[in-house]
Protein 1
Amino acid sequence: MKYISTRGKAPVLNFEEAMLTGLARDGGLYVPQSIPNFSPDDISSMSDLSYEEIAFKVISPFIGDCFSDDELIKIINKAYTEFGHIERAPLVELESNHFLLELFHGPTLAFKDFAMQLIGQFFQVALERKKSRVTIVGATSGDTGSAAIEAFRGLDAVDLFILYPDGRVSDVQRRQMTTPSENNVHAIAINGHFDDCQARLKDMFNDFEFRDGVNLAGVNSINWARVLAQVVYYFSTAVKLGAPNKKISFSVPTGNFGDIFAGFVAKKMGLSIDRLVIATNQNDILHRCLSSGVYETDRVLPSISPSMDIQVSSNFERALFYATDCDGSEVSNLMEQLKSTGKFTVSGSVLEILRENFDSGRASEDETHSEIAYNYQKHSELLCPHSAIGVLTARKQRKINIPMVTLATAHPAKFPTAVKNATSVFPELPSRMANLFDLDERITNVENNLQSIQAFVKERIKI
Ligand SMILES: *Cc1c(COP(=O)(O)O)cnc(C)c1O
């Protein structure tokens, strides 16, 4: 299996190279040259398998000969051992034919653990074999960073740096990033928004001298291996609900379009998905684009669902790539327009293809708050604000006879203030991490400019 860039001008890579590289050298995102297809029989055969066994089936066609079957099985098994639920991604019925997919049983209580724990193991095996080291730099709105630090802490072939927007992550998120004491992981507070962190990260990847000098690798949601890890739970969920004989819809709280794009890949692989519903907060660039065809960045408005406070939705580029029938030069043009004018318009036929696959909705701050309250009163369910946005959008848009699954992307205890304000209940951390507030923090502030961040990274790496 080979990987190509959405902008068509970067070297063709194998799975391992695409994983270690992150962003393509032409600024694009790697996608597989072709998407494997599963027959209805392949899909039915998953219904009796464990999460790990389904992961093996879904992932193996994408990795070519980069990892042997034995290696892949070990990597997958190791990745999910720290999860607090035997099913890894359990499904609970919220109301008739509307389910919550609980993706928050990993070590940092958000769905990011599914991908990050897996790629930590992939990196470890690949780098050990090559006897090399990499420097990973990531940007986070909170959850990616904590998941990455948890997954990479103590791995000897990796130095990890996470840029997070100072004061804009929750205390639990910050503490998960700043309390690990291993000296190969560093959380860096940047004075700005998530989009500033992401922009500095992109600048670092586009500075080839720096990039090659420190052997830079990325683990943001643009990393194909992360998307792939997330494809697995669409399969494990759909077979529980009757796929391939039944169609299932998913509502996905999204910012960077990573999680929902994984659903799109599952659909392209043959999974019987009816609708994929994009659920955004007030930072609604994706909803506006689906509604009007104009993708236009706006000011980031901080919200009570901060992991979706994003105005440049990186993985959307992959959706555009498929909607333009894999036309790298058209994607390139659109991205150039975005860079120079802050917006682009998708042509009628491209918009039509996007709308064939995706619905969208947005929730205001008030609606998010009320939805948390409503689900507590009606179903005794404490939802994190992101999950609440997914549930609200699902309730508004679902067809009653088609099972709807809302992805519950974080544990309510990760966002206790918003949950408490809406329900008067303070959501407690699971007992296995109850000591988080007793641990010492290591806080590092670095100025929001490329040179300062690069200097800090160079000083700390062990290459
Ligand atoms: C990251 C995150 C999201 C958004 O996911 P994307 O893949 O960026 O779209 C939603 N909810 C939570 C809790 C998250 O951590």
Protein 2
Amino acid sequence: MNTIEMYEHMGISPEVLAFGGKILDGLADRFAEIDATAEVNQLKVLAAMQKNRVAAECFTGSTGYGYDDIGRDTLEKVYADAFGGEDCLVRPQITCGTHALALALMSNLRPGDELYSPVGKPYDTLDEVIGIRPQKGSLAEYGVTYAQTDLLPGSKFDYEDIKKKMNERTALVEIQRSRGYAGRKTFTIDELADLISFIRSVKPDVKIMVDNCYGEFIEDREPLAVGADIIVGSLIKNPGGGLAPIGGYICGNHDMVENAAYRLTAPGLGREVGASLDVMRTLYQGFFLAPTVTAAAEKTAVFAAACFERLGYHVSPSSTEKRGDIIESVDLNSKEGLLAFCEGIQAAAPVDSFVTPEPWDMPGYDDQVIMAAGAFVQGSSIELSADGPLRPPYRVFFQGGLTWPHGKFGILMAMQKMYEANLYDKGLLC
Ligand SMILES: *Cc1c(COP(=O)(O)O)cnc(C)c1O
């Protein structure tokens, strides 16, 4: 079978395939830029692995206390060098992104301190960590207060209010790089540079932490290069390269990383304990693949943006905007549109392709939510996945794609399902 026959065999009609091909013709320059970023990031990771003499013995792992775990200790040096930090904590004991962020916050704030976000409310799962929604063990319970400045229209920084809100108790500034699932824009490294230098001009010694989830390897610099003290993220997103089965990292200032290590285990033990079990090879190999895997996910997002723009939908970011993460949103304008899109993503998956995603009442949400994912690693969002609440404008958020051909197939399948349900004007495909 040739490629066209193969796509047809997989359920993509020639019209949808040809439309995708036409859209791709216009993206050559954009894809070349993405490849160029992946190239320099690949060299950065490789250089860090060579400098730290990664060897087969790093992959054996440890059990019990995990004393003298050379694989674990070397991986932390590799991460630190690749991300441009003094130090790094990378552990399978950090269970997810929220845990990594909570760890970084709780270990670097003390009773009486104030946590401050200059970019609006942080990621939803931090509500309970901070105590915006009351919860056992929150920062609020420990006497850490919270303040924020909302973004101005157009996702601009409100410098005047930032100056007003920062005070003698402001101890740590949290900046979320990615939009997450909010309506705002994702910040580029240049934008973060402006914000961080302003914050330093107001309060030079304040600790600055960037929630780097979904942002790793999108640009050729990470936020540490423009003055952040620490960056924090999840290994089942970009830096795990799809292979890491669990884990998170905290990278940057040595003292802040040490504080996190003592909080993760116990005062006095810190990073000396923590067996790496059997996951070390996947963490190394995943980090090695992460620059090109992230590039695949970014190409998928750009391709989708260009396709759905052409079909008349509102997308964000647009296909020509500079990106800061791998998340794309499309307003599908109807319940049927949202369901068909998610059905397509699910049908294109390597795992669980035979199930049909159903809307469900997710705890904490007013509206039903639909999710599509067929992932090798549960909940992994560097793998192609999509979700959205069933309410106008029926906005789907999607991200990931371990390989570009798979990402492309997923988007074609989403368009195919919508085509079959007559959800857009078929004339637009010509
Ligand atoms: C995913 C994400 C988190 C939380 O990570 P989990 O692994 O889902 O707990 C926090 N912040 C941002 C910006 C994220 O994208």
